[in-house]
Amino acid sequence: MEGLERIVKEHPFFAGMKDEYTNLIAGCAKNVRFEAGQFVFHEGEPADQFYLLRSGRVALQISAPERVLTIQTVGESEIVGASWLVPPYRWGMDAKALELTRAISMDAACLRGKCEDDHSLGYELMKRFMPILIQRLQASRLQILDVYGAHS
Amino acid sequence: MALTAETPRIVADPMVPRVGRIRKRVRELSDVWTLTVEMDEPFAFAPGQFNMLTAFGVGEAAISISGDPARPGEGLIHTIRDVGPVSHALSHLEPGDYIGVRGPYGAGWPVEVAEHCDVVILAGGLGLAPLRPLIYEVLSGRKKYGKVALLFGARTPTDLLFRPELEQWRRRLDVDIHVTVDTSTEDWYGNVGVVTTLVPRAAFDPQHTIAYVCGPEIMMRFGAAALRDKGVPDEAMYLSMERNMKCGIGLCGHCQIGTVFVCRDGPVFRNDKLRPLMSVKEL
Amino acid sequence: MATDHVSVTIEKQGLQSLIDILAKRGYRVVGPTLRDQAIVYDDIARVDELPAGWTDEQDGGTYRLQRRDDGALFGYTVGPHSWKRFLHPPIQQLWKAARSADAATVEATPAEPERFALFGVRACELHAIAIQDKVFLHGPYVDSHYKARRDNAFIVAVNCGKAGGTCFCVSMNTGPRVSNGYDLALTELVEGGKHRFVVEAGSDKGRDVLAGLPKQPASSGDLDAAKKVTEKTAASMGRSMKADDVRELLARNLEHKRWDEVAERCLSCANCTMVCPTCFCVSVEEASDLAGVESSRSRRWDSCFTMDYSYVHGGSVRSTTRARYRQWMTHKLSTWWDQFGTSGCVGCGRCITWCPVGIDITEEVAAIRSSEPQ
Asked: Residue B244, SS3?
């Protein structure tokens, strides 16, 4: 347990967060690993976890007939999963490990419960999530621009 | 006695090209070729400089030099994307064909300012070509710099320029190389996401870093923003601009952006100078 | 040296002698003459080819010739031509190339040995030539064609006896009296039935030519009359522009709504750039024979008002008229300073007169200025 607390605390996502909170959050955490090619989750499944990657890489994908489109890959020190934050708590895409990936898995219901109990904790978490979500939105916009395409 | 007509003083005309000959033509991507040009005399240049290349009978275009400045014996090397009539003709010149060369022109990448600093090279698409001479120079004098990171983004895995060389550089342990593509299919195991997403992943000390950025203008704008978010000041970022050029020497007017001529004052600009110009639409 | 400033007067016939001497010395004499209902610059051999007794009436989008009630030879202002058409011609071949299987040669088109005598150059135009000198001769690269023509030119300047409706040289500090940059300067005196010219030499070349002219020393009365000519002109400018801070004014108003308003009127026709005596932009073009053996490159006047001008792969940087007008005007009045250490506008008024919709650069500056807190 003490090991997990340390791992949670040292993950860049929680950088600067009070020990009180990281200790609280660690109660929802567990260590997980995914082999290369293994799915972390599938589109449409309940979003009951979120993942802080410690090593390895995960591809966020959308499957269409006869092709799989990778939207983004995320790696060490980054996070996977935002659907656990908003109802109906279902994954909007697939996540697949591209290589051996180690992560901290956070129980979503546990985390949501702690945030409801202590809105300050919830706010601290939001402050960490929002910039990442905005950055990813911005990155998706740039992808749509197709900057290297015919009109660049 | 009547005044006699003075003979005009003839000055060497900078608009007249020298003649070179294609030694080698290599296909890099579906629409990109690298030409090696044999010149009569040694051709010295600085990383980031460009030449005005003439396809005789078709026209002239500004093309950056993509070879190694320390190895002039290799010939003069340009990497050209086939996008218009002139670049089409240039990129289809065969070994033995003649080519017109004027240059080298412009202010290139200042390499010496990066000594004792970390170096971040941020390239998008064909923007890797003008950066390659800089990469050669940094790698050959590797000890002079702190950490060195090369962040490279392209449209798809098949659009990755200089892939064999990227693999070579990747094998060096003293360069941190991150490559990403905007879109991919399942057979690509590398990163997916725009090139700006690589900036937070690279290891460098933002306060002691010199960044060199080249790619499409939008990519450079957001690339510079990502570097700034990480703490790199505009004064430590250099961007290479592309504009319409007819002369390369500040006499035709075409490449102006507000106060500057890209050919004469650039193409490489420090971002504290460039950013105010880029912030005005259609300047 | 006192002798540098010796002034003389010549009669109208003396002007003919001047043209003759210049022609004899190998100059191609070009000066104002009537053509197509305008006063343009072209070859002249005789004084009576000058537009004697004509004047012009100019306003925004308007140019009209009218008779004068005297026989003045220079009683008008500037027309659609400027001297750049001789020093920086509209089309100039740069080189020719020939290719065979085992050789390719590029031969520079020689800088033409043509020696122009520019006859009737106004003060604003002398400043325009000085500005083009900065562009073509004083930068890191020298334009060899311009240099050959410029080095060999002989300049006969004329002090303006009339201000045009679109003139604002006084605002730009470029006229109406010439200060330097000429070989000879004339001031036309038409008074009391007498028609004479006060002539001043501004160079050794000028003094040498002057020596061969039938002349009389100028009296202090002549000099006084000559001074009054330009004083009167200076006092009757058709336009004015507050120019001392226009560089900064425009630089801080790049997103002003006035650019949208002027864009609604501007036709992007490029007239202003063609008639402007300082606009220097060129494009290049390639010509080749059918077999592809011989080819040549020429340059041709270009304009920042065309879409092609700023084209880069994917589109034009300045795709809107708003951006193109802003480029032209801010270049003239603001960024020219950054690039060449001088204004790019000499207040000749051509861009106002020859704009088909009468857009007035002085009015545009005033509109932007008036929107700022004073």
From this structure: coil
**Cβ neighbours of C306 in B, within 8 Å:** none
pLDDT in tens, B40-96: 988 999 999 999 999 999 999 999 999 999 998 899 999 999 999 999 999 999 999
CB-based contacts of A50, cutoff 8 Å, min separation 6:
A79, A80, A81, A82, A84, A105, A106, A108, A111
Query: Hunting for tokens 């941190």 — which residue is that?
Result: B176
Residue type, B124: G
Q: Which residue, among B39, B282, B283, would best test binding to C if mutated, counting the most C CBs under 10 Å from its CB?
A: B282
Per-residue pLDDT tens over the stretch C14-25: 999 999 999 999
Question: Is the pTM here over 0.90, yes or no?
Answer: yes
Is the Cβ of B251 closer than 8 Å to some Cβ of chain C?
Answer: yes
Mutation for testing the B interface, residue in A76, A99, A133, A147 having most B CBs under 10 Å: A147
Q: Give yes or no for a contact between B54 and B246, defined as CB atoms under 8 angstroms apart.
A: no
Answer yes or no: do B143 and B89 share one domain. Answer: no
Beta-bridge partners for B240:
B268
Determine whether the interchain pair C106/B58 forms a contact, defined as Cβ–Cβ distance below 8 Å.
no
* Interior/surface letters B248-260, b for 16+ CB within 10 angstroms, e for the rest: bbbbbbbbbbbbb
For the residues C19-43, what does the mean pLDDT come to? 97
B48 belongs to a structural domain: yes
| Chain A residues whose beta carbon lies within 8 Å of the beta carbon of residue C311 | none
- Specify the pLDDT at position C3: 45
d(CA C81, CA C14) in angstroms, rounded, equals 26
Over range C157-163, report the average pLDDT. 97
Say what the ipTM of the complex is.
Answer: 0.93
Instruction: With beta carbons less than 8 A apart as the criterion, state whether C13 and C53 touch.
Output: no
Residue that is last in its domain, among B70, B88, B105: B105
Residues of A in contact with C314 (CB under 8 A): 150-152
Instruction: Give the residue ranges of chain A where pLDDT is below 50.
Output: 151-152
Structural domain range at position B88: 18-105
CB distance from B193 to chain A under 8 Å? Answer: yes
B267 touches chain C (CB under 8 A): no
Size of interface B-C (CB pairs under 8 A): 162
Is there a single domain that holds both residue B198 and residue B117? Answer: yes
pLDDT given at position B6: 42
CATH of the domain at B63: 2.40.30.10
Q: Which two tokens stand for residue C25?
A: 């010395």
Starting at the earlier edge strand, list the strands of the sheet with B32-38: B59-64, B50-55, B98-105, B18-29, B32-38, B76-81
Q: Count of CB atoms within 10 A of residue C90's CB?
A: 11
Distance from CA of C252 to the nearest CA of A (A): 29
A2-145: CATH, from 2.60.120.10, 2.30.38.10, 3.40.50.300, 3.30.10.20: 2.60.120.10
**Which parts of chain B have pLDDT scores under 70?**
1-11
Task: State the Cα–Cα distance between residues B180 and B155, nearest whole angstrom.
Answer: 9
The B residues from 97 to 136 touching A (CB cutoff 8 Å) are 124-126
Mean pLDDT, rounded, of chain C: 95
Q: How many domains does chain B have?
A: 3
Q: What are phi and psi of C367, to 5 degrees?
A: -65, -45
> If you measure CA to CA, which chain B residue comes closest to A152?
B216
- CB within 8 A of B144, min separation 6: which ones? B114, B115, B116
Instruction: Please indicate if any CB of chain C lies within 8 Å of the CB of B142.
Output: no
pLDDT of residue C2: 38
